[in-house]
Amino acid sequence: MGNGESCSGQNVRSQFLPEEQAEVDRLFDALSSEKSGSNALPRSFSLKALKSHIGEALPQDMVTRLYNGMCRVDLTGQVKGPSESISRGQFTVSMSHLLKGNSKEKSLMILKMISATNRPVKAREVQKFTEDLVGSVVHVLNHRQELKGWAQKKAPGPPPRVQILAAQLLSEMKLADGKKLVEPQQLDCDCDQAVIEDWVFRAHLVSTFLSVVIHRGFLLHSSLNLATLVPERQVDQGQEFESILDILSVIYVNSHLPQEQQHRWHLLFSSKLHGHSFAQLCGRIPHRGPCVVLLEDHDGHVFGGFASCSWEIKPQFHGDNSCFLFSISPSMAVHTCTGYNDHYMYLSRGQQTIPNGLGMGGQHHYFGLWIDSDFGKGHSKAKPTCTTYNSPQLSAKEDFRFEKLEVWAVGDASGSRLANGNKSILDVDPEAQVLLEISGRSRHSEGLREVPEEE
Hints:
The chain is of the alpha+beta class.
């Protein structure tokens, strides 16, 4: 690999725009100001100065990693070992690689943040770095009060979401033999620069998280659009509501949504707020645009699906190949369409000869994800995988029971898509629809009105 490979022959130039370079220079001046009274040149800064500047914004272990990585940047290509303090050139090159660099440049900085040697690192060392990185993202977003209403932590129970997301990111790594890092015994395998570079390219959240740690840790003013990383959380009427998802789960699922739908999540249905009622569910989610459906079964498995189109109550499948299924706990994964069939979304009620419920993938009575109209029951059948999404069994048991179910509209608000002239009191007030059903009367207008056109 060669430490000199990263910076040998460089003119210590960065990829920053002039205004960004000016901000990096000002930051270096602030960090090295403790030596400003000395005539010693060139200026540099110490670990103590870095910790003092960042304060509580980042965990101390991550601050030390950043400092060590910067110290190990070799501007001469002569590999003399880490410097005793960080020079302006080292700082500029490090910030450029971390924020603007390609996969190769970022992988070199990651290796320097992990180890002082030029030899390959063990996979378990990369695992620890990844856990530190993921944990630092939660820490700094919480410290800067940028969680946007999402919870920092989920209910206790191993393994915590930091480790789950770190494991998911690490599973994207391909070792030198071409095999993915999925087995515990593989943690003793060597990871050279080529392996890390390929991993950074594959696991795009690694680069994103590095950028968040730097931008929010140092409070840089240069652009970092957190709107597509952490969506705004909206719950009607200011109700207190604790989601099944925590901040890391939201970030993971949100990162797989189309970009135009990543900035906002609006709660449409929660079994906690709206009751254990399939009628309520059907009254709240149709014609509201793309949605995320998720639930937690009685065994603690958290999983769901992304519906890329509006839900419609009808006895046919609908949706498109942008839909996917996902799991959050005990492991994180996204399962996309195979092209085998078009059984993306299904929502039916009141039918006599076909199932009534909400389903995604598979086929009748054999869905990848099924929520029965007999609310609280469902199944996830996949032997070996779901035909539509190539997903395994998402729930702990094939036939499961649940109490917690949520549906979030994603992207811009879609509640106004029903033209005012076509609204019924049953559209506006799902509780009125429930009362209608309890009385044994049918909704004659259902299915007779035209479905409003999507904006």
